[in-house]
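STRUCTURE:
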């Protein structure tokens, strides 16, 4: 099968490319001039220079492809502006859909997120019937929801056979977004638990996410469907962070503060960060506090029932692989430069 992966240099994208190649698929990746393509070159994939925000380059990359895996997105909590999020996540997805239609590509697997349902409140065993919030509290969640709506609308109108996969807390080897932030906070002795870390959460080991994406892309009967993908295990924020600390080698948090205080502190941190003019992601954000301080559990029963999905890697095994990867790259210091 001929495949095109957007966001192939990213966390999920790199793992997906590796799995597709192992299946025997021919893989092409859309990459920007500024992308670090070293890992993709080593894997021997075809590289097409372009950007999802530039339709013509995307259309050229899509020629002769059977399926597109759309992993590219602008991820963050309090750094970029709404217009930047909108351009990447909404307009970029529209371009992908247009390219599918123009190039005659009938299959699209879209990487969405549990955050499309996120309104900073508790969710218990939420499933795909959970409604979108009337008002979003962060640009990432809002624009990813708008992008998913575009995909579902295109599918409904018969423009493409498309489905959306919604990972939860994506983790594992290769994470250079969330994990480095946790390590930095731990080294500065600023990593704390919220309400004792009692909030339950759902996690998504990166390879499990890729497995679900491939199952969805190969299934002709799930067009127009959305699927939560999780590790199908219940775990608290404290348990997950402590397991990560053991695997990676940072000091476990010993301090706990109330959710309200943490949220207020994050709001102040965001304000100071915006005044600084920095384009980097702040170490603390209201989105991040809500993500780890609220009960957020999701059901993957629909994916199990309709796709035959089963998480191949459980949390304990994933932690072993995470530990091995950190050692392979030269230790914890490599995560934060």
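SEQUENCE:
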């Amino acid at each position: 099968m001929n495949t095109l992966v957007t966001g192939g240099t990213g966390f999920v994208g790199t793992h997906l490319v590796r799995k597709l190649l192992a299946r025997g698929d021919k893989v092409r990746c859309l990459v920007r001039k500024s992308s670090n393509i070293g890992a993709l070159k080593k894997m021997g994939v075809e590289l097409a220079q372009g950007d999802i925000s530039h339709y013509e380059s995307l259309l050229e990359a899509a020629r002769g492809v059977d399926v597109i895996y759309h992993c590219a997105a602008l991820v963050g909590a309090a750094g970029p502006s709404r217009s930047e999020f909108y351009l990447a996540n909404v307009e970029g997805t529209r371009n992908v859909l247009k390219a599918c239609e123009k190039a005659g590509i009938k299959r699209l697997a879209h990487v969405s997120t549990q955050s499309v349902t996120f309104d900073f409140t508790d969710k218990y065993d939420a499933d795909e019937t959970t409604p979108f919030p009337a008002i979003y509290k962060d640009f990432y969640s809002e624009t990813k929801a708008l992008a998913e709506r575009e995909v579902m609308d295109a599918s409904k109108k018969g423009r493409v056979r498309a489905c959306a996969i919604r990972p939860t807390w994506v983790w594992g080897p290769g994470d250079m977004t969330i994990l480095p932030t946790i390590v930095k906070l731990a080294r500065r002795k600023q990593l704390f638990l919220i309400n004792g870390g009692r909030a339950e959460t759902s996690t998504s080991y990166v390879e499990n996410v890729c497995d679900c994406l491939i199952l969805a892309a190969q299934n002709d009967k799930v067009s127009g469907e959305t699927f939560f993908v999780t590790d199908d295990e219940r775990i608290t924020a404290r348990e997950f962070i402590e397991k990560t600390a053991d695997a990676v080698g940072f000091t476990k948090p010993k301090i706990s503060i109330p959710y309200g205080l943490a949220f207020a502190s994050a709001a102040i941190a965001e304000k100071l960060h915006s005044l600084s003019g920095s384009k980097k992601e702040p170490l603390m954000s209201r989105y991040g506090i809500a993500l780890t301080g609220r009960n957020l559990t999701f059901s993957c029963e629909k994916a199990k029932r309709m796709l035959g999905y089963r998480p191949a890697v459980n949390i304990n095994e994933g932690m072993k692989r995470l530990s091995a990867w950190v050692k392979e790259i030269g230790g914890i210091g490599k995560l934060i430069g």
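REMARK: The mean pLDDT is 95.
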